[in-house]
Amino acid sequence: MTYRGPGPYEGPPNQGPHGPYQGPPQGPYQGPAEWPYQGPAQGPYQGPPQGAYQGPPPGPYPGPPQGPSYGGVPTYQYSDWIHRVGGFLIDWVPYAVIILIGRITGGALYFVFVLIGIGYWAYNRWLLGGRGQSYGKRVVGMRLVSEETGQPIGTANAFLRDICHFIDSVICFVGYLFPLWDAKRQTIADKVMRTVVVPG
Known about the structure:
The chain is mainly alpha-helical. Helices cover about 40% and strands about 5% of the residues.
């Protein structure tokens, strides 16, 4: 019997019922499934919550500062000399008329008119003046106030201020002229009592 050796190699036997293993399907790589990118949900931009702009609280514009002040009295605002003279004359004329009538009447009535004149002066200059405005100051539009507080000085201080006017008179009335050149338009009596006269 002659040995013929193995026959030609025919590859591995069939694998399984489906035949030899074919490997994965071949073809161009498709990559993962693709679809158009939608991005985030689209819509008109609303921006931040809207509301009517309120702005700063309304109110009168205070304007720029007006320089230094003394007790609330701005240094740029003092009554001038001519207005002060006018206010003093309005205060003084009724008193002078009362005394003149007493002199003309004579006798005991003179002293009655003197008392009336003193009463008028005390009421007008010390009571009303201590509240800020005597008759004369009211007519010309002025107020007497404290240099330190900007407030009326009261009856007692108004009386003392009139007493201090003696200094203005005794030096040949030069003290009454001080408001012509003084920075705060004060008489000597005003400087002693620390008072100023302002428009108002």
